[in-house]
Amino acid sequence: MSGPRAIDSARSALLGRVRQRGTRPELLVSAALRHLGVSYRKNVRSLPGSPDFANKQSRWAVFVNGCFWHQHRGCVRATIPAHNREFWVEKFKRNRQRDAQAIRALRRGGYAVVLVWECRSSASARALSKVLKTRRVDVRGAVDHRRVAVDIS
C-alpha cells in the first residue's frame, strides 16, 4: 500500500502503542501523593474528566497531562505534527476544551483541581503538598487553561 493511507496506518500503529495509564509522570505523582500520606483513587470515572488521582472526601483531583496531547504552552514537547496538520490542530483544540470543561465541572462541585504537566512531574511533590494540604485554590475568575486550576510548574 502506498500514499497517505500507508502513512496513516503506520502512524496509527505508532500512536496505538502510547500508554494512557501507568506513565512515568503518573508514577512520580503517585509516589509524591503516597509520600504526603494522602489517600486517593486512580482514574476516577465517576468524576468529570476521570481525574488521574482524586479524593472525593477531601474534594481534590489531580490531572497528569502529557505536554504533547494537551499542548502545554511554551513547552518544547508540545509540537504539532506536520503531516495532516489541520487534523492535529483541531484535535488538540478539542482536547483542551474537554479538559477545561471537566475542570470547570469539578470546581463547580467544590473540588480543588491540580494540573501536573509531564515535563514538570518530577518537581511536583512540594507543589502538591502546598495545594492539597492547604486547599488554597482560587476558584474565581475566567476559565481558561492558565487559570482553571493550580498548574504545577
Number of helical segments with 4 or more residues: 4
What is the C-level CATH assignment? Alpha Beta
- Quote the average pLDDT: 77
The percentage of residues in β strands lies in 5-15%
- Which consecutive residue ranges, at least 5 long each, have pLDDT under 50? 136-148
How many structurally independent domains?
Answer: 1
What structural category arises from helix and sheet content? alpha/beta
Helix content range of the residues, please?
Answer: 25-40%
Order of helices and strands: HHEEEHEHE
Classify the oligomer.
single chain
The largest sheet is: 5 strands, mixed
User: Which strands sit side by side, in order, in the main sheet?
Assistant: 1-2-3-4-5
Compute the gyration radius: what is it?
Answer: 17 Å
Shape: globular
CATH superfamily: VSR Endonuclease
Straight-line N-to-C gap: 45 Å
Total DSSP E strands: 5
CATH topology: Endonuclease, Chain A
Query: Which architecture would the CATH scheme give at its second level?
Result: 3-Layer(aba) Sandwich
Structural write-up:
- The protein is of the alpha/beta class and about 150 residues long.
- The protein has a single domain, classed as VSR Endonuclease (Endonuclease, Chain A), CATH 3.40.960.
- It contains 4 helices and 5 strands, in the order ααβββαβαβ.
- It has helices at about 5-15, 25-35, 85-110, 125-135; strands at about 40, 55, 60-65, 110-115, 150.
- The protein has a 5-stranded mixed sheet, sandwiched between helices.
- A hairpin with a 4-residue loop joins β2 and β3.
- α2 crosses α4.
- It is globular and about 45 Å long.
- The protein starts with a helix and ends with a strand.
- Residues about 135-150 have low confidence and may be disordered.
